[in-house]
């Protein structure tokens, strides 16, 4: 029997003591070019997230499961159903799981380790799933299997393409329906079409059909990846506003967020036979100490909201870069589907009722609406979010200079703020939101490199990768996205002075800077490696001299865009009026 760990990249070592209160030492890299020199290999103290003991995580998860379980949930289906887990590796608020249970008398959960996810990125050949995210995924699967077992089920894990294996599993178990959450990007949509085609080749025996007219197993796709349900939007996805603020204000005023689904106390039984025909349950290595998964996600929510009471100051701390608690750190579990965005909404509202409602509690929802927005944009703009010109189809001359990209990727640009962020990414699979904006701006504005190089590298490295948010953010940062504002520039000196004034962050990831005076750590001169390019705007006071900050310029650009649209509307209205008069 093939062990699942043998399928994942093995080039990195990751912390094995996440549930200890102590920090851990870590020497690893998601980059094959990360050289073993005194400046590249070092020990760094990594903060565990969540910083709870195993017992605390278990208690927090048990409490959440209890709140979202009910003995009153009814089951009225017949036969066998399959729930196909994809990017929804959780039990709490999993509508596909609930509908599969309700629509059957026996339920089989399955997950496919699709080899395409461990191949290379489309353009530049990076690993599609780097070692750190692969390990996090393994941890999520182990946790999902554990939680399903505790509720009377198990998880069938198979290596291969879903379209090749799922039809034979449906045939072996006589499953009338395969339930799964719907995706929005082209690769995932293509797999859905191939699965449907494969299921159409399976003929169900008469007694195993949920409906006398149903000859083949069917694929039932369910929406469940966003905080706002797609059916509750005040517009079709194809008519989604191109400016985030317009989208946010519209959904906040015209839509409501659905409550989390209640689950039955028990999800049993499993199908009674046919397991031998599909080669057993599949193996998940038992010798690892797991970090990812639904229980850890629920533990982090408990820790951030209730134990440490950090959500009350989220808006003030969210632009930090160092440590575990300046931001929520929910994104890796949202990315793997181990955590429901609606569950987070419910926790915010529960916190506001029990303790405090302020700008910070709202801002958690503000960021979740951004996540929804990128998901819906992927429906409106399709594959254009992956194209060089982006949704706006802009023609821009970009470079693919290998040496410049390697310096950015490896954290050897000569700019400590860039290098520290890239070191953190390669060593942990995470980077702050502020850091992501800064390194994106540097790659596209200062290095003038093809933004897709950065997007594909992030795809390879990030624990919280999902195609909609990743490519949505990169097109936005590169000025080729749907938003009319472009040419955003993050001045490295200004960002360093504002967000790392004493050089704590850069000296943490670049220990060679620690001996320098704090005010020089971000501006080390000849005490650090040579800068690969001059900055686009060397003068950090350029915005003050022109009397405009970057934020004000963005506001003016947006105002200008709105004025243009108003004029367009007036012209169109007058034209129609003239036609009517004629």
Please give a structural write-up:
May have a photoreceptor function. Helices cover 43% and strands 6% of the residues. The chain has 20 helices and seven strands. β3 (80-85), α2 and β4 form a beta-alpha-beta unit. α4 runs parallel beside α5, α11 packs across α16 (467-478) and α15 (451-461) runs antiparallel to α16 (467-478). Mean pLDDT is 86; it is low at 5-43, 286-290 and 540-554.
Briefly say what this structure is.
By secondary structure, this protein is an alpha/beta fold. It is 43% helix and 6% strand.
Give the tags.
five-stranded parallel sheet; globular; alpha/beta; 7 strands; 582 residues; single chain; two-stranded antiparallel sheet
The low-pLDDT segments are 5-43, 286-290, 540-554
Q: What would you call the shape?
A: globular
Arrangement of strands in the largest sheet: 5-4-3-6-7
What is the overall pLDDT average? 86
Number of helices: 20
Order of helices and strands: EEHEHEHEHEHEHHHHHHHHHHHHHHH
User: What is the number of beta strands?
Assistant: 7
CA radius of gyration is: 25 Å
The largest β sheet comes out as: 5 strands, parallel
Residues in β-strands, percent: 5-15%
Q: Given the helix and strand composition, which structural class is it?
A: alpha/beta
**For the terminal residues, how far apart are their CA atoms?**
79 Å
Helix percent band: 40-55%
């Amino acid at each position: 029997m093939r062990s699942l760990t043998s399928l994942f990249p093995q080039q990195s070592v990751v912390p094995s003591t996440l549930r200890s209160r102590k920090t851990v030492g870590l020497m690893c890299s998601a980059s094959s070019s990360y050289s073993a020199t005194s400046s590249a290999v070092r020990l760094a103290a990594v903060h565990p997230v969540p910083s709870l003991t195993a017992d605390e995580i278990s208690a927090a998860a048990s409490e959440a499961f209890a709140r979202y379980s009910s003995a009153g949930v009814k089951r009225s289906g017949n036969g066998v159903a399959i729930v196909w887990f994809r990017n929804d590796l959780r039990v709490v608020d999993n509508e596909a799981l609930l509908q599969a249970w309700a629509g059957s008398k026996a339920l089989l959960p399955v997950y496919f380790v699709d080899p395409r996810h461990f191949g290379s990125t489309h353009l530049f050949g990076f690993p599609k799933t780097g070692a750190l995210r692969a390990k996090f995924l393994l941890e999520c699967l182990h946790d999902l299997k554990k939680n399903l077992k505790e509720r009377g089920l198990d998880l069938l894990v198979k290596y291969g393409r879903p379209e090749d294996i799922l039809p034979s599993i449906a045939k072996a178990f006589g499953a009338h329906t395969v339930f799964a959450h719907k995706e929005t990007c082209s690769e995932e949509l293509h797999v859905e079409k191939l699965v449907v085609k494969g299921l159409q080749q399976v003929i169900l025996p008469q007694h195993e059909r949920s409906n006398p007219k149903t000859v083949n197993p069917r694929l039932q796709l369910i929406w469940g990846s966003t905080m706002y349900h797609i059916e509750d939007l005040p517009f079709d996805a194809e008519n989604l506003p191109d400016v985030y603020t317009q989208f946010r204000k519209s959904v906040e005023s015209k839509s409501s967020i659905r409550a989390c689904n209640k689950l039955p106390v028990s999800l049993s039984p499993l199908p009674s036979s046919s397991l031998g025909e599909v080669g057993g349950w599949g193996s998940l290595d038992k010798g690892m100490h797991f970090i990812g998964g639904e229980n850890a996600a629920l533990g982090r929510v408990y820790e951030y909201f209730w134990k440490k009471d950090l959500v009350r100051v989220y808006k003030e701390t969210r632009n930090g870069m160092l440590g575990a608690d300046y931001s929520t750190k929910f994104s890796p579990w949202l990315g793997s589907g181990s955590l429901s965005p609606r569950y987070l909404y419910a926790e915010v509202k529960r916190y506001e009722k029990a303790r405090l409602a302020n700008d910070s509690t709202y801002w958690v929802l503000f960021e979740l609406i951004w996540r929804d927005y990128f998901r819906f944009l992927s429906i409106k703009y399709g594959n254009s979010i992956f194209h060089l010109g982006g949704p706006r189809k802009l023609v821009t001359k970009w470079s693919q200079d290998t040496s410049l990209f390697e310096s950015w990727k490896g954290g050897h640009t000569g700019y400590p703020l860039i290098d520290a962020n890239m070191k953190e990414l390669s060593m942990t699979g995470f980077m702050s939101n502020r850091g992501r904006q800064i390194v994106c701006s540097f790659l596209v504005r200062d290095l003038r490199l093809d933004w897709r190089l950065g997007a594909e590298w992030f795809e390879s490295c990030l624990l919280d990768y999902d195609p909609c948010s990743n490519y949505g953010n990169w097109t936005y940062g590169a000025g080729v996205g749907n938003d009319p504002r472009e040419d955003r520039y993050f001045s490295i000196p200004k960002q360093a002075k504002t967000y790392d004034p004493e050089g704590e962050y850069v000296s943490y990831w670049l220990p060679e800077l620690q001996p320098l005076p704090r005010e020089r750590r971000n501006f080390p001169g000849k005490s650090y490696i040579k800068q690969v390019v001059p900055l686009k705007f060397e003068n950090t006071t350029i915005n003050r001299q022109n009397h405009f900050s970057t934020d004000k310029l963005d506001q003016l650009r947006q105002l200008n865009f709105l004025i243009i649209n108003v004029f367009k509307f007036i012209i169109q209205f007058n034209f129609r009026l003239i036609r009517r008069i004629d």
